[in-house]
Amino acid sequence: MGWNKIKRLTLIQQMAGLKKDFGDGKISFNRNKLTWEGMLKSSPLGDEYKIKLVYENGQSPKVFVLEPQPLKLAEGKTRLPHVYDHQKQRLCLYYPDGREWNSSKPIAQTIMIWTMEWLYFYELWLITGKWLGGGTNHGISKTETKNAK
Predict the structure, then answer these.
(1) How far apart are CA 140 and CA 137, in angstroms?
(2) What is the distance between the alpha carbons of residues 89 and 80, in angstroms, rounded to a whole number?
(3) Is 4 inside any structural domain?
(4) Which residue range forms the structural domain that includes residue 36?
(5) Is the separation of the CB atoms in 92 and 111 below 8 Å?
(6) Mean of the pLDDT values across residues 130-142?
(7) What percent of the chain lies above the pLDDT cut of 90?
(8) CA atoms within 13 A of residue 98's CA, in its CB half-sphere
(9) What pTM value is reported for the model?
(10) Which residues pair with residue 34 across a beta bridge?
């Protein structure tokens, strides 16, 4: 094996990590797809959110906020920040180019933590109207971007 090859974690290994660290959630698994559904909080004082994670072999994990549906918007805003899909509430947690996440990294220690971090910045956004979590804009108009500053 060359030095640049990554050792991919299997779905069973990913499932074991989720069970260990997020065992309160419901896990379903077949040979090509892993799904975790459960409640997460941004912090001990944060609100609870029903989250669904879907991970299929050969794809990046997808994370959705199922409840509340829809998520509240900050005052004067018309769209959620840092989501791939506003209607489905699919969260943008990392750059999809493989620099931050790839299949060699445990979902429980990356994607799930990044989801809680997204929820934390979402709750700050509700208060301030500014996204403080970094990243890039997703289809936000220039007017919305200008007003976010």
Answers:
(1) 6
(2) 8
(3) no
(4) 11-148
(5) no
(6) 71
(7) 78
(8) 6
(9) 0.87
(10) 29, 55
